[in-house]
Amino acid sequence: MLTFDLICYWVRNPEPQTWIRNVYRADFSGMRVLLDQFKLGPASVEDLYGTIVQKVHEADAIFSLKKPARSQMSRMLPKIIRCLLEKRSQLFFKKLTTEDTEDELAFRKMRSRCKSEIRQLNIQKQATILELARRNRKVLFNYMRHRRRDKSPAFSLKYRNEEPTSDPIMVSEFYTEHYAVLYPVTGSSSHLILSGLNCDRPLTDLVFTVQDSRQRLHKINPFCALGPEDTHPRNLNETSFTLATHFYLVFCQSPPVLRSEGSDCIANLQNC
């Protein structure tokens, strides 16, 4: 029906030459072929309306319902938001038809409400993921892999009060346990791979440089779509902060003489 209303709007407001293309998520393939080839010229409104009604009925005769994929069904919006979006579409076409100021205000108000509801839903979903990830880090792993397909440049979560967070302790432990298997690093005499859970090794037994930190960060970069050598600045900054948190715990357990040297190493690591 929205596609039909869109066509009727173009009929009532004919242009010298207008193409209608790229109609996604059509319920029947006949309408998609029609809209890809149909051209509205400078003919009379009555002739265009009669032609379109005939074509719509012909396309409706070959209607074939497509069953949505399981992944699409799981990501379906709640019923209240879907109803608001449908009402927003109705107000939009009413605004285009009448061009009334009250209809314009009603549409803008409904659009703002839809954005607010969707924003609150995303905040609740991200907060739920954080709570589940505290008990099962595999949930966070699956969420990050899903975000890589949708928005690959960066990864971030938000609490219920809309404050962004990466939960340094949890994310750093997550890196250590999961991505150490995906991107293994061979141990050498130049540096030692620290465990995220056992931070009781004294500084006198460690040999660690900033260059080793950068190499380690490049190896645990699961978000970049360009390649393993290209690291997004935001990911590099967040990851270096999470790794520096555990290094700070190690420095707190070391002698006071070495803490000043360790704080300089942390500052260089965060500025990478």
Question: What does this protein look like?
Answer:
With 272 residues, the chain is an all-alpha fold. The protein has three domains: 2-61, no CATH class; 75-135; 168-270, no CATH class. It contains eleven helices and four strands, in the order αβαβαααααββαααα. It has helices spanning 2-12, 29-37, 45-61, 70-74, 79-98, 101-135, 137-150, 168-182, 210-219, 233-252, 256-270; strands at residues 18-19, 39-40, 157-158, 164-165. A hairpin with a 5-residue loop joins β3 and β4 (164-165).
Describe the structure using short key phrases.
elongated, two-stranded antiparallel sheet, 63% helix, mainly alpha, 11 helices, 272 residues, 3 domains, 4 strands
Describe the protein's topology:
Blueprint: H1 2-12, E1 18-19, H2 29-37, E2 39-40, H3 45-61, H4 70-74, H5 79-98, H6 101-135, H7 137-150, E3 157-158, E4 164-165, H8 168-182, H9 210-219, H10 233-252, H11 256-270
Antiparallel strand pairs: 1-2, 3-4
